Amino acid sequence: MVDNTKQPRNWFEQGGEAYARFRPEYPAELAEFLASVSPGRTLAVDVGCGNGQLTGLLAHDFDKVQGLDPSAAQLAHAAPHPRVEYGCAPAEHLPVADHSTDLVTAAQAAHWFDLLRFYDEVRRIAAPQGVLALVSYGVLQLDEALDARFARFYWQEIGPYWPAERKQVDSGYADLPFPFEALASPTLLISKAWTLEALLGYISTWSAVRSLREAGRDDILHGFAAELALLWGEPGLRRVVRWPINMRVGKI
């Protein structure tokens, strides 16, 4: 007998640690590039660091890294590192000494900042010839069998629920004012071999998902998850997920 009372799995019910668990890590090549263009390797400051995905990576190349974020909840899930010091602070008021910082980074965060005030702080804390890098990763890419369904979900179904700032991420920060001497950056990708659970867990961390659920449109999420699961095959099968990394890098 079929149990008609059984509810379909809710892939989008994730706990507070979901951001740390599911967000993709940056490749080591990103930190190596940023260190290579910095005037020194004494101090890097990662602003809007979240749970420290880029912060910890920078610690391999810098003597000290400060990871700063206004969210104590995000910082609570940051992995400790002996050369990283985390602190709760907004981008517009950085607890960093004047002219002390070789590299300032903001990864997947600059679109939330008051940029003029942030840039004033960057100029204040930067060492001579210091470098600022605004880093983002674009819309994820799946193999052909899945990508069309994901694109419809991203651009049409959940698209209206993204905050306006998301457009800056989609454009790779190309439209953000950036009053610094631009430096060329390499073409880099984030690439992960993920299960269906990992992919949908990542999607659950999106601000648009929260907005959609607050609007009572869980049906959009569950319809997408069900259709993607059929295309995916065995849930434990690992498929390649890629994100293009975009950067605005300049001398301060």
Summarize the structure.
The protein has 252 residues and is an alpha/beta fold.
How would you portray this structure in words?
The chain has ten helices and eight strands. By secondary structure, it is an alpha/beta fold. It has one domain: Vaccinia Virus protein VP39 (Rossmann fold). Strands 1, 2, 3, 4, 5, 6, 7 and 8 form an eight-stranded mixed beta sheet that branches. α3 (55-58) links the parallel β1 and β2. It starts with 17 loop residues before the first helix and ends with a strand. The model is unreliable at 1-12 (pLDDT under 50).
Q: Can you tell me the CATH topology?
A: Rossmann fold
Order of SSEs, N→C? HHEHEHEEHEHHEEHHHE
- How many independent structural domains? 1
Kindly, what is the distance between the CA atoms of the first and last residues, rounded to a whole number of angstroms?
A: 69 Å
How can the largest sheet be summarized? 8 strands, mixed
Share of residues in helices = 25-40%
Kindly estimate the percentage of residues that lie in beta strands according to DSSP.
Answer: 15-25%
Total strand segments: 8
Structural class: alpha/beta
CATH architecture level-2 label = 3-Layer(aba) Sandwich
Low-confidence stretches: 1-12
CATH superfamily: Vaccinia Virus protein VP39
Overall geometry comes to elongated
CATH class: Alpha Beta
Radius of gyration: 19 Å
Number of helices, where a helix is a run of at least 4 consecutive DSSP H or I residues:
10
Overall pLDDT level: 91
